[in-house]
Amino acid sequence: MTSLHPRAGRRCHNALNPLHSTVYFSPDFTAELAQLGVEDPRAAYFAGRGAAMGAVGPGAVAAAFYNFNHELIAEHLPAVWDTASPEAVLAARLRAVDTTLRRLLGDDAVASPEMAEAAALALRAAEACTRHARPLYAAHADLPVPDEPHLAYWHAATLLREHRGDGHLAALLAAGLDPLEALVSHTATGKGMAPRWILATRGWGRTDWEAAQSRLRERGLIDAEGELTEAGTALRTELEEHTDRLDRAPYEHLGAEGVERLTELGRGFLTTAALAGAFPENLTGKG
Questions:
Q1: Whether 25 contacts 280, CB under 8 Å
Q2: Where is 44: in which H helix or E strand?
Q3: Secondary structure class of 145 (helix, strand, coil)
Q4: For residues 66 and 59, is the Cβ–Cβ distance under 8 A?
Q5: Which of 71, 167, 194, 269 is the most core-located residue (most Cβ within 10 A)?
Q6: Under DSSP, is residue 190 helix (H, G, I), strand (E, B) or coil?
Q7: Alpha-carbon distance 81 to 102, whole Å?
Q8: Under a CB-based contact definition with an 8 Å cutoff, are residues 57 and 77 in contact?
Q9: By the 8 A CB rule, do 246 and 171 touch?
Q10: pLDDT tens-digit map of 244-276
Q11: Is 77 helix (H, G, I), strand (E, B) or coil?
Q12: Three-state DSSP class for residue 228
């Protein structure tokens, strides 16, 4: 055991995960997928994130992604694989990562000793990730580690992100939150995705959202205004703490000093990317 703070892994994840996600907001990603013939942005996202699992259908993606409407996914999968193979999609995604990180961070940062250090630290942490009951992590863990440090850093951030994400889904199931209830309650914390983004990208309608709110009210988790009650706040807190416990091994393996340094480096890269416009405006919040 190390002297790791209980939330140290979460803080590190919060520094690495957003940079991982920049590729899915990037015009470079949609351009690369369009060159393969995948022109619908939703199809591109499902293919890009799901390709590590192979030519899967909508059921597998709905299970692994959790908060998307199965009907939306089924509009694009498995048909997308007739246009582009998983192998072609993965290669296109990596090209998009390269272009995106160079554009957001600059060539100097991409080639810096700090990037190489961050990649080494993140890969070391990922050595302690486990495959069982973690389908998205396990699929990505079977992919080769890219040679270039900035691509290796993104790959390692992806491993850590999907490892934590798979564990978080187990925590959501244990808490009895279905996909949309999970989204509604997270948005109510003020830290989740804004409702308009959810409704525009996850395949749910306003009536679905309101029905989920009603179910949460019946459980006493949100009030009439859609704000978390004391019980709702306690549930969301326990969810994150449960996720922390399930995701502790990589950061224990890296050690307290390594986690602190990786978090510092990750925050630096993330700040640079955010200032360069990596993320859409008003992505999070209650409005």
A1: yes
A2: helix 41-50
A3: coil
A4: no
A5: 269
A6: coil
A7: 29
A8: yes
A9: yes
A10: 999 999 999 999 999 999 999 999 999 999 999
A11: coil
A12: strand
Assigned token pair, 34:
């369009």
The one-letter amino acid code at 204 reads W
List CB contacts of 173: < 8 A, sequence separation 6 or more: none
**Residue at 133: amino acid letter:** A
In the 8-state DSSP scheme, what is residue 222? B
Residue type at 48? Answer: G
Return the amino acid letter for 223. D
Name residue 59's amino acid: G
- Which tokens go with 270? 């993330």
pLDDT per 10-residue tile (average), the chain, 287 residues? 84 97 97 98 98 98 97 98 98 98 98 98 98 98 98 98 98 97 96 93 97 98 97 98 97 97 98 96 85
Assessment of whether the complete model's pTM goes beyond 0.90: yes
Question: Beta partners for 222?
Answer: 228
Q: Count CA atoms within 13 Å of residue 256 on its CB side.
A: 7
In whole angstroms, give the CA distance from residue 164 to residue 27. Answer: 26
What does the pLDDT look like over 27-45, one tens digit per residue? Answer: 999 999 999 999 999 999 9
| Residue 75 burial by Cβ neighbours in a 10 Å radius (0-12, 13-18, 19+) | middle
For residue 210, what are its two tokens?
A: 């309101």
Amino acid residing at 203 = G
